Amino acid sequence: MTYSGKLVGVLIGLCCATALSAESLDFDLRGFGGSIGSMTVTTGAVNAVDAVTDGMPLDAFNGTFKAERRGDAYVADRISAKGDRRLIEIGFAGQSVADVSVDPAEDRTEFSVPAAVDEPVVSPMEVLAAAMSAQICGKTLTFYDGRRIVDLEMQGATRVGDEGFVCSGRYHIRRGPGHGSILNIRNLPMTLHFPSATAPVSSIETRLMGFGLFAERK
Questions:
Q1: First vs last Cα of the chain: how many Å apart?
Q2: What string of DSSP letters covers 138-199?
Q3: Of the four, 41, 111, 122, 151, which is 20 to 30 A from 97 by CA?
């Protein structure tokens, strides 16, 4: 299940929020008392993520995840630590889904057809790119990953002394299956930390099965 983006804030739309342009941000992924991987998020004309998780206590969460939104096309490629691969390709027409492909076929859900997505959505990469900027605070962004529809609901920013700003919210699967098969993870709390109102995110925090998971800027 290694959508590292899921784990940190799979982590994870938005025509109304503006991401930082042409910039790559590197993160250490931490949890369970140590390093669990790394992630690079690129924003700009192409929004992309390249993540590796190799320190999770369950191998089901370890592997690689690469995704990008280029023009109207979104592609996500996940390879688990066991070598299982899932490739998802989505064609967008504005905020509508024009076509979708999920391989292998057994990973498809009832929402893996365009007709099932009957509301405005964007790709997970617009949401993750938006989360790099404090402009995401106070917004609800709805995205589609080829298998489910998810809301990222963020509250307004709060100043924390001299440490900058924090905004909290949640990742909520509203339609479609939860993550992690039998774990059926449908809600993850999210906290974003910003050194200033104009600086990129310094850390992203969530909790999985009672444990804190962190994406910390290098």
A1: 25
A2: T-EEEEE-SS-EEEEEEPPPEE-TTS-EEEEEEEEEEESPPBSGGG-B-EEEEEEEESSSSS
A3: 41
Domain coordinates in residue numbering, the chain: 4-217
Give the pLDDT confidence of 4-40 residue by residue, as tens digits.
434 333 433 333 333 444 689 999 999 988 999 999 9
The hierarchical CATH code for the domain 4-217 is 2.50.20
The structure's pTM equals: 0.87
Cα dihedral sign, 175-177-179-184: positive
Secondary-structure breakdown of the chain: helix, strand, coil percentages, each rounded to the nearest 5: 10, 50, 40
Beta partners for residue 191, in sequence order: 168, 205
124-136: pLDDT as tens digits: 999 999 999 999 9
